[in-house]
Amino acid sequence: MAKPVRLGVVGTASAAHSHHASYAKVYGEDFEIHGIYGRTKDKAAHLAKDFKIPKVYDTYEQMLADKEIDVCDLVVANYMHIPLAIQAANAGKHVFCEKPLTGFFGPADKRNEKWSAKGYSRESMFKIILDDANKAYDAIKKAGVTLCYGENWVYAPPVVKVNRLLAASGSTIMRIIG
To answer: Residue 30: is its pLDDT beyond 70?
Structure first.
């Protein structure tokens, strides 16, 4: 029998709680949450206790070095998705990341500070986004790992309603005002 896929969850905010609660409802798949890392170790320890997670890491690098971890689930601030995904890929770990994978979060040296998009053209912002996405793609491809991207908007009530309306219309809807 093959060993279960072992996940390391990165992040301890409310979305991390949702991920753990969702994982607890999955059945029929052979996986386990093997460890958790969060900037606030107390929060990580609390989630580990609540969800019976065996390991709490002091650093993300410590999680990446753990040979037992197969996949890193990145439940972190959006601006951290790309750099942490690249680190995980470089460590040979598969990556789970939810929306958005990337975006324009300000200049790289000010991503955790207040900044303004004033002075940035849409083209320059798009170039930064594209460059970030390509860096992640290159790291994933080079490492031979998989990037799993979670997008839940397909189930959002307005999107479900539009799909229902499109299916019922039997044609194209020219205009919808909400």
So the answer is: yes
Cβ neighbours of residue 141 under 8 Å, at least 6 residues apart? Answer: none
Size (the chain), residues: 178
Q: Which CATH superfamily is domain 5-153 in?
A: NAD(P)-binding Rossmann-like Domain (3.40.50.720)
* Three-state helix/strand/coil letters over the chain: CCCCEEEEEECCCHHHHHHHHHHHHCCCCCEEEEEEECCCHHHHHHHHHHCCCCEEECCHHHHHHCCCCCEEEECCCHHHHHHHHHHHHHCCCEEEEECCCCCCCCCHHHCCCCCCCCCCCHHHHHHHHHHHHHHHHHHHHHHCCCEEEECCHHHCHHHHHHHHHHHHHCCCCCCCCC
C-alpha count within 13 angstroms, C-beta hemisphere, residue 108: 7
Span 23-46, average pLDDT: 90
Model pTM? Answer: 0.81
| Distance of alpha carbon 176 from alpha carbon 178, whole angstroms | 7
| Residue 86 clears pLDDT 80, i.e. is over it | yes
The whole-chain average pLDDT of the chain stands at 87
Domain ranges of the chain: 5-153
